[in-house]
Amino acid sequence: MAARESSDKYVRVLLTVCMTCQTEIVGDKSDLSKVTRDQLRCKITYCSVVNPGGWAPTSALRMVYKREYPRFLKRFTGYVIEQCKNKPIQW
């Protein structure tokens, strides 16, 4: 089935995004009040499904994914670090 012509300048897509961030403590976990930010790490799981509705070929989407997903995760990680670095750990 061919994609129909768009009468406006926007392309509509269906997008589903799932993101899970899991905090892990490296080292001694017995006394949480003594844990420092140096002992924390975060595991990020990111998944998305994009359906362009036939407006873009699969090969073009793959090219965008390979470039944009790592860029997004790097920027997101930097943002979180910047927001949390001088604040107390919230359990």
TrEMBL record:
GO terms for biological process: ER to Golgi ceramide transport. InterPro entries: START-like_dom_sf (IPR023393), START_lipid-bd_dom (IPR002913), START_lipid_transfer (IPR051213). The keyword Zinc-finger does not apply. GO terms for cellular component: collagen trimer; cytoplasm. One of its GO terms (molecular function) is lipid binding. Keywords: Collagen. Residues 6-85 form the START domain. This is Collagen type IV alpha-3-binding protein. The gene is col4a3bp.
